[in-house]
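Handout, tutorial session.
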Amino acid sequence: MPHVARMVEDIVGCKWSLAVLGAVRSGVRRPGAMEHAIDGLSKKVLNERLSKLVRFGILEKQAYPELPPRVEYRFTPFGEKFLGVLDSIDALQRGLDGHPT
């Protein structure tokens, strides 16, 4: 598993990673639904981001043996903890913007 600081750098520095994580967090688990839910996100970039988030151990990919094939993404236990880091960053920004945390 990569160094957590490098993961934060990579994910926070990429609006698409944050958008994908937000979609999964809100219950959008299938790649096609993510493509429709996130304006401007291409299939290529989505697949790159999902692969990276799986490699980092933040998301896990579940493939179902159906026709047509169905794939869903969920947070791993580590991914659930990682969301706490993103929540802390969001709370810090809200505090700096003068909004209650």
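The second record follows below. Compare its token runs with those of the first.
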Amino acid sequence: MKQGRKNIRYVRTIVDDGQSKVLEVLHSIGETPTNTQLNDFQKWRIKDEWKRYKEERMNHYIIEQNKLNAISLSFPNGKKGEMYKQTVCLDTSKFQEIWFENLDQTGLHESIDTVNGTVTLSGIPFEAKDFEFKICIKLKGWDAGDPIIERKFSIAFNPDPRDLWKNIPVPANIEFPKRDEDSDYVLVPEFEGLPQKDIVVASKRGRSHAQEGKPRDDDFRVSFNPQNGWYILAVADGAGSAKYSREGSRVACETVEAYCKGRLAEQGDAFEEAVKAYANEKTQETLKPVIEKIHEILFKAATEAYKAISKKVEDCQGSAVLKDFSTTLLLAVCRKFSFGWFIASFGVGDGAIAIYDKNSDGIKLLNEPDGGEYAGQTRFLTMDSIFRDKTRIKMSIVPDFTALMLMTDGISDPFFETDANLAKKEKWDALWTDLSSSVEFSDDNEQSQYQLLNWLDFWSPGNHDDRTLAILY
């Protein structure tokens, strides 16, 4: 480029001095041109120098373009909806201006630091697809008509896995229809001068069910009796492989809640006296009446649920068998006394019942999940063999607690992964922290049921079953 400018200056000097200077030079070499020849010579000389100048200038741009192409630059792929950030280094000392084209459609924006020679692309991609964009550069000394060097790039943003799930409606004409989601909130006032806890519960159809247009198989029932102060909480998970399990879970929850409510109304005084005697003096003699009442109420409630499901099978008049209504069942009854809380439970199948106190060092589990021989296997209420196992009932007396939680495996699997982890307090702390970030666990918060429903949409790879969680807090 410098040589080209020197040639142009020399030609301009010849032109400015007029033809006399040209003639002087030509005469010195023995040439005597005519005026026409002299004019043609001047035009030819200027044109030739100009051509050489443009060629040298273009060569300069080609060299810089090749240098740009040779630099190791890459923008890796990203994922829709997730923050993207990538920084590359460029020698910007030769640049007059640098910018990106076709970047707007990606959802990213550029940040150019000419001092440190870095270019950063960042932002949240809003569409899953392949994009092409380019870096454009004007070199220093750029003038109108000069080339702009550029380099093209391709980048792909993979879809958010959540977007791949379908939400197919359940056929309207199925037997035993059920809503895709349900929730409830029970506001409990003081009882016998003692402050009480409220109940919030929510249940939602899993993504794996929505993907195939299948109904929700989970169910629940929760209540508080203002006449005697007893709480009842039940959740159930119908077996996904059983065609009427959604009805099995409904019948189980409805039956045990109604049965416990009736029995606690009839035998509540005797039960309470037994609990008070045991709380005052914990001996085998005082424990025995409490265990007997738990059997009479909770264990018998589960038996009644089994009978109610069996009656459903009879109503189908040969078109169904008991296994078609397979369901798990987690049941708890509790009451606040002057000395603290009494909680009794019955459990069959997977999921979890636990007393969680964020200020304690441990966790109190009130069920033992029935793991099968293979992953995903469990036992169900519809298996009459479970009623030969009297250890399915548990009880606990605690001064207070943060939350009593009953959950189906749609919650326990993603947060605890294994049955062994259910005993780890740190796992429950993590669950409660996650819950508390979305649900306001305050008195009289009727919106908590909708907050909990929204929380049930949490993303956990590989865990897309129905989700049901009941919380006494």
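Points raised in discussion: The longest strand covers residues 130-139.
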